[in-house]
Amino acid sequence: MSILITGANGKLGSLIIGQLLKIVPPEHLIAGVRRLESGKQYEQQGITVRLCDYDQPESLEAAFAGASQILLISSSHHDDTIRLRQHIHAVEAAKKSKAGHLLYTSFAYPEHGAGSPVHLHLATEYAIRTTGIPYTFLRNALYTDFLGALDLGAALDKGQLEIPPGDWTFNAVTRRDLALATAAILSQPEVHKNKTYELTAPSPWTFRDVAAALTELTGKPVDLLPDPEISHWIYSFLRSIDTSSTSNQLEQLIGMPLTSLKDSIRPFIA
Ligand SMILES: NC(=O)c1ccc[n+]([C@@H]2O[C@H](COP(=O)([O-])OP(=O)(O)OC[C@H]3O[C@@H](n4cnc5c(N)ncnc54)[C@H](OP(=O)(O)O)[C@@H]3O)[C@@H](O)[C@H]2O)c1
By C-alpha distance, which of 145, 150, 128, 146 is closest to 137? Predict the structure, then answer.
């Protein structure tokens, strides 16, 4: 068994490797990094480090050689057209290296969304399907980090969380829970081949729940203030994806309840 993880230095990649180290020996892991010198901490743990740059197809072919499972963590480039090209480089490299299993961090419920990122993730899923390589699509929900864009500190100061009017529901989850599920899948590959998982929360929450959690965490009363004048990129983004559909697959994969909304919010009000 040799599991290669691309984007190994990223926030999700590091958490996944951290979880994997609890269940598989380090010799079974290969950390794919954009600059070799950034992989020193992995080498010190006994993990093989390989250059893995989505803009350098030859680096991907060399990196993927001999890996029994490849986890392609989606690129963080801001331009989705470039991201698609980067992902195609990785998919072609996986095909050339005759990979036995290609896993991809997609986005939850892409068929329900209309924005550019959802097209990117569906296009990548379809590109992977063209190779005939056994796949697993990890359709990750919105990270709870989006709450950090809402300026919860200001909401606490004012006692009011200002939001655009409308029915907003969320299925956001923490990277930690996603990493637990991904590590569980990677450690039992045969069970998860050719499966698509919607890794979302089992039940949605609303801005009213966020306000209540803020109050519970700090003791300060926080109300909702719908304001039609609010314009912030986060709301246009949220409107372009499906944030309300839920699934219990993430909870089943990790075998315990997900991180609570209160605990997810805590880091953003520290
Ligand atoms: N579900 C959500 O709400 C959500 C939110 C944001 C992002 N995402 C997606 O989820 C992915 C993982 O999230 P994250 O929090 O771990 O992001 P992150 O911390 O920004 O990590 C992204 C990783 O991708 C690597 N990378 C970027 N460009 C690359 C390239 N050209 N070749 C090879 N590697 C490259 C980065 O390498 P370096 O370490 O060298 O920079 C980094 O390790 C993101 O990349 C993005 O596609 C999802």
Answer: 128
